[in-house]
Design brief:
Length: 422
């Protein structure tokens, strides 16, 4: 992705009505779409985002001869006889591939992926061994042979208590998909906190799989993929909380207004609390919430945390927001302390930012000055695009098109309010 985008900054406010450009949650779509392969019946999934991470997954579905359609954000999967293949290196372009492993390995017995890379943003070391450890808990051996990843059955699974120990959304999603395929009782302890996992739980329950949830412990008794009735009603994914937060910040930094159905903010209470602390107005009336500036922004101290805290995925966007608050703000991100790709690039547009061991210190209040910057991952790309909207002059953003990995409408929104040149 080496394209360049020129964005002419302006002081013109950007008003966003979210319900005119809603987007389903990427982190719910990837596991839910893969989970439909576990059950050999018809599934209808609505509000599936039209983003590149989903498209990568759909291309893999085609390679295994899955019978499906994807039109106007609706995915329909039909009963299919899947074709066993060795997955190509493109498998790694989306972390959704790990959910696909969990969905197929029991049916196929063995699975090979050419090369050994991991998709997703390059934000330092992700604990990928956690994902492979989940497979081992279900009796699968994982080997690297000739540079290829090979997964095979090594022991019969008879049920188990599996300690997930806050391994994150992908490991938790994989474990739940795997457990739904075995009749033996599986207990998942310290299941992931991310609300996107609620969609996966709900879908699997609707397939008549027994799941009992108490706190963060899940008890699952699965069954054979052919013993299910077809789903007669569509399953709708929740909206993407990262996208909602990004749009809200874009409106705030430009002095605009962001409106949204209040129900869609239910997983963003900590983010809304932060906005109030920095002197934003957050008002709800008759089911609609309006977010706008309420004077000058105030500097604050922010700690990134697992749900229900401030998500690490929006840390770069919050950095841009706090760069506009006069004074010293501090962001602590110990979840991904190396999520710093945006910092060196934001410095190029005039921000005063320092970083050390998961602590970001922002001395805000200066106007951004246009420059040439390069997006190094999805979230840093979003941060740089937001910054370019308010910078004085025309900012050139390289590798901007990776924004489509997670945002369907952000470029369209910017294009409607700023001069763009690709």
């Amino acid at each position: 992705m080496g394209n360049k985008l020129n964005v002419k900054g302006s002081r013109k406010p950007i008003d966003i009505a979210y319900d005119r450009c809603p987007q389903g949650a990427k982190n719910a779509a990837l596991p839910v779409l893969c989970a439909t392969l576990v059950f050999n019946n018809k599934s209808i999934i609505e509000n599936v985002p039209d983003i590149s991470d989903v498209k990568v997954l759909l291309r893999l579905f085609k390679r295994i001869n899955l019978d499906f359609s994807y039109v106007k954000h609706t995915f329909i999967k039909y009963p299919s006889r899947l074709k066993k293949i060795d997955f190509p290196k493109s498998f790694y372009k989306s972390r959704g591939g790990f959910y696909l492993i969990a969905s197929l390995i029991k049916q196929w017995g063995t699975l090979k992926i050419r090369g050994y890379e991991i998709g997703g943003c390059k934000i330092g070391n992700r604990p990928y061994t956690h994902f492979l450890r989940v497979l081992k808990n279900f009796g699968y051996a994982v080997d690297i042979k000739g540079g290829d990843l090979v997964i095979r059955r090594s022991a019969q699974y008879r049920g188990k208590i599996i300690q997930l120990n806050d391994l994150g959304i992908v490991a938790s999603g994989m474990a739940l998909i795997l457990a739904s395929q075995f009749e033996a009782k599986t207990t998942l302890v310290k299941f992931g906190k991310a609300p996107e996992l609620n969609d996966l739980i709900k879908l699997i329950k609707e397939k008549e799989i027994f799941i009992k949830k108490r706190g963060r412990t899940l008890v699952i008794r699965g069954c054979d993929r052919n013993n299910h009735q077809s789903s007669l009603h569509p399953f709708k994914l929740q909206d993407d909380r990262m996208v909602i937060a990004t749009y809200a910040v874009l409106s705030l930094i430009t002095g605009g207004t962001f409106t949204i159905t209040t129900e869609k903010l239910k997983y963003l209470s900590s983010f809304l609390g932060l906005l109030k602390k920095i002197n934003a107005s957050v008002k709800s009336h008759r089911g609609v919430t309006c977010i706008a500036r309420n004077g000058d922004l105030r500097p604050v101290k922010v700690k990134v945390a697992d749900y229900p805290g401030i998500p690490t995925d929006i840390q770069p966007i919050i950095t841009v927001l706090l760069a506009g608050a006069k004074g010293v703000s501090i962001i602590e991100d110990k979840i991904f302390p190396n999520r710093i790709a945006h910092i060196s690039e934001l410095k190029k547009v005039g921000t005063d930012i320092e970083h050390r061991e998961g602590i970001i210190v922002i001395r805000g209040g200066k106007r951004f000055i246009a420059n040439s910057v390069r997006a190094k991952d999805l979230r840093s790309c979003a941060a740089l695009l937001l910054a370019s909207c308010i910078a004085k002059g025309t900012t050139t953003v390289s590798s901007w098109d990776q924004i489509y990995r997670g945002y369907e409408y952000l470029i369209s929104i910017i294009r409607s309010n700023r001069a763009l040149n690709i």
